[in-house]
Design a protein that fits this description.
Layout (H helix, E strand, L loop, with lengths): L7 H9 L4 H11 L3 H20 L9 H11 L5 H6 L10 H9 L9 E4 L2 E5 L10 E7 L8 E3 L3 E7 L1 E4 L2 E3 L4 E4 L4 E2 L2 E3 L4 E7 L3 E3 L13
Antiparallel strand pairs: 1-2, 2-3, 3-11, 4-9, 4-12, 5-8, 5-11, 6-7, 6-10
Protein name: Cupin domain-containing protein
Pfam families: Cupin_7 (PF12973)
Organism: Marinobacter salinisoli
């Protein structure tokens, strides 16, 4: 069960089609496994359609978006059964399995991983999103392994594809969604008996903060 979700503004941007392709993929993968967020996204789709239909007749008030966000947040209290009843066939969503297979192939564990530091292996797939300025990276943290302590020079959006990791913010399981920025410093640890694999979209490279690893910062893209 997913415990970490996109915020309301991210879902609004996704519904409006204003996210970059890599960021939209992260949310799409989460939505395919989270009935609660699917319900929120479907409500936004419906609300957007109504607003478009009434656009010539409606005067936009300053508090409109605040009211929309408040209404969306109220939906967080819905049970999984209630959220599932709101599920609809949204045109911009694809099945999780086909989306991953199209991007990565059948088995993400068999990709040409490159060992980066200690227990961490990476695969930069930015070239699969031509025209995007963000870096798109797959990261694999060996079961029981620790990633170097680091912070971020920009925003980092991550979706857990396999396994789980833990840091000072809690435990992040498969299909959990997390956004970090320059205010966040963490040292993820893979929990469970399998490697933890994540897909991350970065607006800027990470910054290592450990006593010895920070000397490698000039070599980290």
């Amino acid at each position: 069960m997913t415990r970490h979700h996109p915020d309301s503004l991210s879902l609004m941007d996704y519904s409006a089609g204003s996210l970059s392709e890599p960021l939209a993929l992260c949310i799409r993968l989460h939505l395919d496994e989270c009935s609660e967020c699917r319900g929120r996204a479907d409500m936004l789709d419906s609300l957007g359609a109504v607003m478009m239909e009434r656009q010539p007749k409606v005067s936009v008030k300053e508090e409109m978006f605040s009211n929309i966000l408040a209404r969306i947040d109220d939906e967080m209290a819905m049970s999984a059964e209630q959220a599932a009843s709101l599920e609809s066939a949204s045109g911009h969503r694809q099945p999780r399995r086909s989306a991953l297979q199209k991007l990565l192939g059948e088995d993400i564990n068999q990709l040409p991983w490159k060992r980066q530091l200690g227990d961490v292996s990476v695969l930069d797939i930015s070239d699969r999103f031509p025209g995007q300025s963000q870096q798109v990276v797959l990261q694999k943290l060996a079961a029981g392994g620790k990633a170097p302590a680091h912070t971020h020079r920009g925003d980092e959006t991550t979706i857990v594809l396999q396994g789980a990791f833990a840091d000072q913010n809690g435990v992040f399981n498969q299909w959990d969604y997390v956004v970090l920025n320059e205010k966040d410093e963490h040292k993820p640890v893979a929990v469970g008996c399998e490697d933890c694999i994540t897909l991350s979209v970065l607006s800027a490279p990470v910054k290592l903060t450990g006593t010895f690893s920070r000397m490698l910062n000039p070599f980290i893209r």
